[in-house]
Amino acid sequence: MKKVAIFIYSLGGGGAEKAALGLVDGLKSEFEIEILTVSPIQNYDAKDIKVTSLYKHDFEGSALSKLLSIFKLAASLSMYCKANKIDTVVSFLSRPGIIAAFAKIFHPKLRVIATEHTTLSSYYGDSMPEKAMKLLLFAAYKIANSVVAVSSGIKEDLVQNFGVNRGKISVIYNPIDIKKIKISALQKVSQESDGFVFVTAGRLIDSKNFPFLFEAFRSLPSFCKLWVLGDGELSGELRLMAVEMGLHERVRFFGFCENPYSYFASADCFVMSSRLEGLPTVLIEALACGLPVISTDCKSGPREILGGANNMLVSGIEKGKFGLLVSLDSPKFLSIAMQKMIDEDSLREIYRANAQARAEFFSKEKSLEAYKNLIIGA
Hints:
By secondary structure, this protein is α/β, with parallel strands linked by helices. The chain has 16 helices and 14 strands.
């Protein structure tokens, strides 16, 4: 059996982390597999899979110190792989991707498959550490044996902005266990009111754009509720914002939830307000739970999932085949779309009826086979 390490920053709550665990679960019968992390933070249960952290205190460092530690971590990763006879490293997200690629400098026989989960050109700004990260990414994806983009939008971003050879990139959707999600969704939570419940989920971080969502939600009727699932660095700030906006009785924060699908299945509509995504797994999970979906039309992912037309919105609202897409120009468009879901029973039911069939398109079998072929070098 080939020995494979899935390498990710941490197992904190997030879509990439969930995708990594899904890949581990799907490949563990084919390969001898373990998980390597940079940081020991862990919210997800890896069950019977070995998890090793390379650096216990990385999460405490500044952006500059994290940048400077890349070569040290690359050396540590290469030594670990040599000592444990690991053949292939599959990295998740940009910093682990850089570390894994540079580990090949110390261990040339190591195969590295770098997976990218966001449109990097939108993620990194113009500060010196961010510019340095862009240069390191440019180099890392040339060193890696293969590059996986989890959406077509990410592939184009890597080609156009990071000089990655188009033929080196495979578009492979995250392996999602749709059947497991449907079973988990059967355990519904009790509704707290007879009102219309919107639910959203994700890390409470800047790119998820929760203030934008709060502003849109603010103008909806008082019988509407918003459930927020997830945790993150902006947790305290967003809770205070809800109070200051007079939304504290209508917005409820549930924190990190091991089974978010029980909340999804108990709500009336899923809404996502992100400014930046790759292929947002959470939209597919909401569809798997049979929810009508509204999403901002950020650069990569939502349009691909919800069946929008080929071009991004200039402004306003678009009825995608599997959900509503709204412009990031103003919260008013999101508010109008949310009101539309409340008012139009027929629209809601059409999206609900098509949701689970759309989710099945992203089921895990094709993704796992594609990863298997990359790992064995087919």
